[in-house]
Amino acid sequence: MADKDGNVLAKDYGIGIEPPQRIFSVKGHQCAGWGMQGRLSQIFGDDGRTIMLAFDHGYIMGSTAGLERLDLVIPPLLPYADCLMATRGALRTCIPGNHRKAVALRCTADTSVLKDDMSFGSAGVDIEDAIRMNASCMAVQCFVGAAGELDSLKTLSYYVNQGEKYGVPVLGVVAVGKEMERTTRYFSLATRLLAEQGAHIIKTYYCDNFEQITAACPVPIVIAGGKKIPESEALAMAYRAVNEGAAGVDMGRNVLQAACPSAMLRAIRMVVHENAKPEEAYHAYELWRKDVK
Ligand code: 5RP
Predict the structure, then answer these.
(1) Residues carrying an active site annotation
(2) What pLDDT score was predicted for residue 120?
(3) Is the pLDDT of residue 275 over 90?
(4) Using an 8 Å Cβ cutoff, are 42 and 102 in contact?
(5) Domain regions of the chain by residue span
(6) How remote is the CA of residue 203 from the centroid of ligand 1, in Å?
(7) Between residues 6 and 228, which one has the greater pLDDT?
């Protein structure tokens, strides 16, 4: 060693003091590897919750209302999101590289809304590119009950295997095809199935008896927002979801198509991270909305 001589003698060994107990608060991942836990911690706060902002719609829907100009619309929302869910194409072109947010990278290559049956997707982004993109997790679309079910579950397994190898979690996304029922029974089956196949986080839709779904799912669940509904109703849905066991939201259109997206995301933040009642959050939304105009 260059400083062999003149070093201060080491003496503070804390003899008799037990190493601190480490608590990891993300559901189901207490035994995950250190790198995997690190990436999950980029997504979930110390309260075990997250606000993901989904703007990956273009990869199957093209340019959608509210998402026409991601480069203009998304950057002002970054302060209020914990995690950005998007494709590599959108991230690279619209988000500055110094963003400091978690990233849920849309990895599957799925077919567009022009197809009657969209359930035959495949792996798209490879794990090396996900790592190059600093992905905190890889989002994989799964079509339980559809014609392409087996293909999509094989794709899920592929990403889970790769993710386990490199410490990158997988977000299993429950896709609801045109013909699929949106019942408690369906979401209960699909979420549990994806978790048992190894997905580390599950994205699904809110439904009746949601607490049964979160209880039976061994890993965190985040809810999609779905089609645009009035802001007050979207806040009420987020409130019910987190109070019935969801670990947060992964919302797109109900933020991006709101009259004021930044105020909406701030209001969702109040509900998810501050346990605000939906009425209180909606009141704040209205005030912030006036400020922005
Ligand atoms: C579709 C997705 C999308 O990211 C998600 O649906 C977008 O969120 P929202 O429904 O809130 O617009 O995962 O499979």
Answers:
(1) 203
(2) 86
(3) yes
(4) yes
(5) 34-258
(6) 9
(7) 228
